[in-house]
Design a protein that fits this description.
Oligomer: homotetramer
CATH class of the largest domain in chain A: Mainly Beta
CATH topology of the largest domain in chain A: Butyryl-CoA Dehydrogenase, subunit A, domain 2
Number of domains of chain A: 2
Largest sheet of chain A: 6 strands, mixed
Helix content of chain A: 40-55%
Strand order of the largest sheet of chain A: 2-1-10-11-7-6
Largest interface: A-B, 80 and 80 residues
Strand content of chain A: 5-15%
Distance between the termini of chain A: 78 Å
Structural class of chain A: alpha+beta
CATH superfamily of the largest domain in chain A: Butyryl-CoA Dehydrogenase, subunit A, domain 2
């Protein structure tokens, strides 16, 4: 039922989405979208199948998605983690922006909304609280649009001579603000209910017109989304592309053309400091980061499982260097679990009693994980090697060559078809555009790793490091 | 004219090729094959356009492809290198098995054919010489089928209980031998004239029935090729996939079912030692390796050029770490040139006066190059990052969104469309299945890098290393 | 007082220790040993200064070193960790084998001593318990001798034709067993009270005579230790070698010549299975591993602190690539903390209620940590670069060149002498034999990283990995 | 005789050299210097033993060191290379600054001296020519002093408020110029005849007073050198430190206090542009770079030889991963040879017919070589592992433990003493300060690798890269 509501919502709001240069009229029927829509449906289904895991009940008796819950203890954080994990397993960790991602942010932004303040025209703080309640009640899927198109990375957006360098206030009216411009990589935006539009920290003086944050329905007038080329292979079967034909996360290029955002949907307005504080000082990133590293673990697990199966079935698992590579994977999994645990254990409690996972632990993992993931992907490439590029098509098993192929590709440990599917899975994860987008996602979805590291050093408590060093130096001075 | 002859040959021989489970009836019309066929045509065209570079003339006045020339001096090796380089540029180094690859082997095998010997049934040595003359005269495109399917990597092929673990002699007749079995990754086999079937070194006692080498026409009775799934995007434009829609090298899975090979086409017959000597002791690999590293240079150059263009046009080329990455690429190019030069300069001359490039120099580069190439690909991924995943479809520039996109994606240094093509090229080379197959190719086409290194150590002259070490140790003993 | 007792014990037992080919007569006076002895003294002093942190009280009211405490809760594990951490800071993590290391093993071996069983001649199980009580009561420093000399790594010790390939039972008497042979890298053995002699797992059938474990006093008749060359610079000042002149951990080559071990000191006797179980099945390695990773954290902290001070004072900390390197260090510290935490949080409780830290978490860190540490050391090398090799000697500041050097080497952020000490510290940690031995220690003290990884894969629970993989494959089969 | 002249020169000029805070009175007797002095003596001896290799004859019949020869053909470059190689083998490539290093620069600077021009006070161009002739005639050993102390890397030397930030003109007189200041890492300066003082490119406007180049005798009034702490172990034997006790290259910190340099010794005077051109536009670095990479090859060879001997004698050379590591070393050697060859083959000829090796080839190798060398050193560490830290002292073989140790450390493939020396050599090359200084040297002696790469990209001909890229993009634009 929840899933039907969702399907009905996204198919009836006249949203404007372009795919391959054509407007998509029937969202639910578009083969490219079907896989992802099914995953979102299964996300809603989980809430009905396992309400004890995936929902919470508020003081008014309202049952709502647990991702929106404000954790009041470490146990609450663990509960959220368990839900994140099960949700991520629906897509093998390959959908980065399931509804729980931004929901976790919406909750904490509301909780810390006093930061947002008020103006003559709008009470931004109250708007955040109201939007939170709205999301709880409606159980909607909010995507986010935060990344400004990279026209010239050596300039701030206000300096770039291009009105699509971000989303910009054109003018204000009594009803609200009129915005125009663009955002890129709006993941799953084409099939979400709403968009949360904001900027990542980094705006500078002079960027005021771009310094906004607000929410709006995907179907609002003036909202247009242009999909990048699809990475799933809708024309091919699961046999041929076990995961890459199943779904694609669909990133869109978002265009806003004179879109009116009512005052009660505005969260930040022409305020560079507030725009920079929005995702950071509200602790939003602590909670999305928590979801993110839990999801990342699932992705690492399926890749590890695939490597193990390859090693076993291709006769490789007796070689010490192969075993080392598998151990490099399992040790990485364990260190991920350590970091997930630590970010909960050292969560910060605010004065409202809300727990936010330790962001510096999350960032520590985010710096190392992409490198581990890349090593994992390379391990799969080295195990499957040329064999990945010697797999017949599904239909070759349905014509008169079938019996010959069944015999020819049969191994002592795995039969011909399973061998083909396994090698195709290896290809999807390591060689196909699907798998490489997944790798790129891990490297860049949370920002440039070089900057993640630099910021980690800047913010990390290195008191003990300095103390030990100064002690030696002091003892050694003459 | 040469290209027409080629097209006419491959379209009229009733070859049996399966693609996506369906037999391809009109080879020339198949969209998946068209790109590669065009590249082979342009290879033949080069011989007519620049005969002084791409052909040689023999003592009988016959003009023939220079790849078949037996080099009698370092200058001859340089001439062949210049031709290899121009041929590789036709496909930006992305077609690994253009006709010049195996042709270079056919020549040297003929020259050293005394190794192959004779038997009662056949004069293998003379067969090799005749085949060489045949290739010169006919100017045909020979592909090779050398890799046995990896059913169980812990066993020798004779031990595997699967009659498709290689190509096997079933019986012999007065006319020739009857063979059955399979080979994998027969690159471009679907559009070649002939196949040279042999084994890479590594067969063991007990593998006698598989220990054969021979040539045969692709259209011979009983020959069947099953293509892997295509990696080019025939449904998409060059705009959307600048290189990945242009062509695919098409690897096939080759099945031989009771194929008769006449005695005069047999080169090795049930002889494990000879099978292992075929590619190695004839110096075949010295010449194919020479072509291979020259082609690899072109591939590295296009990838470097793409990285440079990205850095310049995305506003990245002021950052020292970006400059270092570009320098890592150009220094690698230079070291490649050093190795190419050295393998020619230290070429071995045999008693017939034929020069074979130094195989140990080639292998040295083959061990390092895949790692460099991977770094290059990762550099492209890091420069293009998320922007690669935010490119509209070609058709988005042909509908009413066009003018808006032209404005929105316009940069100070590059206009919207060129920017899109550049990012799409970056994706093709680094993220798309096309690009990853190219990376896998570099890692594995010449064998497992771990074994390449181990063999290099085994064969390398380390006398000076040992002398210096022994000298210190001797001076230090008490 | 505790420290005096220790000093008195090790200086009065007629131990036989050779250094630079000469027998050391006055252990306490030997300059090479002084630094390490002082560190062990400070270890004992800590117990008196902070008894609440470094000691526990047993049911009989006996106050004893907390490292010998059997943890009955996660809180107990945390208490032990806090003590380990403070102990490690005494030596900046550079003494790997402080007394708490093997003490943690002695406790758990006693607790799990039923594994050791009994024989006609001895009750091994009771011996372990008695030895534990003895250690508690005497507060002694036990070193261990476990590594067999690597004469030929391709053979088991029983196969090697050399009676010093391990420690071997020569014969037995009514009083005990007579052993001869050798062990290598007996760290701090020269200044310990006792030695725990055993084998790491890995003995094979045929190695029975070597399959022993026992304890004995360092001064026992027939025990001889030969030190490797010292790595501290006793002739130089702290100024010149801030840490490398302070102490050396002193590894010895241990020779036993017809040493009699009384039956009540024998723990394993000619039993390959039991010898292999001794360190593993008793959970000894879980507890020494816990101490080890906590100590490793301290080492990483001093190295990080040194890198930070270099970056700040050499004017480097504005460069993004320098900041990334510092962040690579702080993120590694945080992941270490995550692993330390997780190994406690997922500690296994046995049926006696004793908690043993999760060994697989410890091993996960042990596989990754050496690589991180090496990167840290390389970072210091890259920051200090040539400047490390341009530091005058301490005495240059005490002659007529002093004022000139004080001016010449003065920087805007750090004065000449502190700059010199800092660069000398950088050298000690990254360039000097002292620092490289520390790096080697991290790589090899817990076994070959390749084997650590392979064993981790073998023992790790990969159920969820396999489940996710099988699910995709199952969904994709036709 | 040549060697005696050298010894006599350096011992009779009243040079001022401090070691460990004390002035060295008898240069020839100082144990720290003896090893290096002997190597320089053997350099001179080579000229007498093999004049056909190590000397050339000029038009006036003067026989002079071949490093000073101006190569007029590729053959001449090869001759110089052969001499460089033999010279480098004297020290196993571990002395980076043997006389041939800067001599090769002195020759080409003279040849291109028109760049230096003239002023009212001095004819810089003629000075360079005269100095070249002087060096030829006197066969002296010139060291160089080029690196300014790194007080604050974020500033240019003129901005730093410290008069020792470089060597500075204090005033001029009729006789010459008066300079004061400092240079660091003047390698072998303590035992050279003369110093060539200059700046590496990189000075900026405002640095005029530091923009000088000149030569002067080491014994000139006001010249003072302060040695860094010695890295050779003069108190230990070759047995204990097979190479690290043999010699140390002795870097000094050079102080000039009001030193007068006669006008005929001045090469650059208060001219930032000329100072930056001095090492670069004269092609000096092409020739010193040529010597440097040839010497680097020798160093890589001794390290490879040591790794091979370890692998063989420790029973490791059957493991595939060990063989790969050895192959990684031999393939690197071969690529080095390729680069050496290419830089000669593509040498640039100037209008005087002088050949200068291709600097971009040299820099390409310089970027990759330090990484290879580091890998080689790590390979030795992994092969020797703990065993390096379990070697008795030489004197242990001279006391009553000798026979026992001879038996205990005897292996099936290598006897006890040779095993000890081999492991000690492994330690010297990979763990000792000696070996790590060698590694640092490779990383930094030619400048920061990050900058080497960036400059390589800036200067490299990437025309073909751009052409190929533009061709694809052009073909793909709509």
């Amino acid at each position: 039922m929840l899933e039907d509501n969702y399907a009905s919502r996204i198919s009836s709001d006249n949203r404007i989405v372009y795919l391959n240069g054509k407007k998509v009229d029937l969202i639910l029927e578009e083969p490219v979208f079907k896989g992802a829509i099914n995953k979102i449906k299964s996300y809603y289904r989980l809430q009905e199948e396992k309400p004890e895991v995936h929902t919470a009940i508020d003081n008014n008796g309202l049952r709502y998605a647990i991702s929106l819950m404000l954790p009041k203890s470490q146990e609450d954080l663990q509960k959220k983690r368990i839900s994140y994990k099960e949700v991520s397993e629906l897509s093998y960790g390959m959908l980065g922006r399931t509804p729980d991602f931004i929901s976790s942010a919406i909750a904490i932004i509301a909780s810390n909304s006093e930061i947002l303040g008020t103006s003559e025209k709008a009470n931004f703080s109250q708007n955040a609280i109201n939007y939170y309640e709205f999301c709880k009640r409606k159980n909607i899927f909010v995507a986010h649009a935060a990344i400004n198109p990279q026209i010239d990375r050596s300039k701030s957006i206000g300096e770039i001579d291009n009105k699509y360098s971000g989303v910009k206030v054109v003018r204000e009216t009594d009803n609200g603000i009129i915005v125009s411009g663009a955002k890129m990589i709006v993941t799953l935006g084409a099939i979400a209910d709403e968009l949360l539009v904001f900027n990542m920290p980094g705006l500078r003086t002079g960027d005021e017109d771009f310094a906004v944050a607000f929410s709006l329905p995907v179907g609002a007038v003036g909202v247009k989304q242009i999909c990048r080329k699809a990475l799933n292979h809708t024309e091919l079967s699961r046999f041929d592309h076990p995961i890459a034909s199943a779904f694609d996360e669909i990133d869109t290029y978002l265009i806003l053309e004179e879109v009116e955002v009512p005052w009660d949907r505005v969260l930040v307005y022409k305020d560079v400091g507030m725009s920079n504080a929005f995702y950071d000082k509200t602790n939003a990133r602590n909670h999305t980061g928590h979801q993110g590293i839990v999801r990342g673990l699932t992705k690492a697990e399926i890749v590890t499982g695939t490597a193990i199966k390859l090693a076993k079935n291709m006769g490789l698992d007796k070689f010490p260097n192969v075993l080392e590579k598998l151990g490099a994977m399992t040790t990485s999994l364990e260190l991920m679990k350590g970091a997930i645990h630590l970010c909960e254990y050292t969560a910060k409690v605010d004065d409202k009693g809300v727990y936010s996972p330790n962001f510096l632990t999350i960032q520590a993992l985010r710096y190392h994980f992409p490198q581990w993931y890349q090593t994992m992907v390379q391990t799969i490439q080295s195990f499957a090697a040329g064999s990945m590029l010697a797999v017949p098509h599904k239909e070759d098993f349905n014509n008169h060559n079938a019996s010959m192929l069944l015999e020819a590709l049969n191994g002592p440990l795995i039969d011909a078809k399973e061998r083909c599917v396994l090698l195709n899975l290896a290809w999807d994860l390591s060689g196909d555009g699907f798998g490489q987008r997944q790798q790129s996602y891990e490297f860049y979805h949370a920002g440039d790793p070089m900057r993640i590291a630099g910021m980690h050093y800047r913010d990390y408590n290195v008191e003990i490091c300095n103390k030990l060093t100064d002690e030696i130096i002091c003892d050694s001075l003459i």
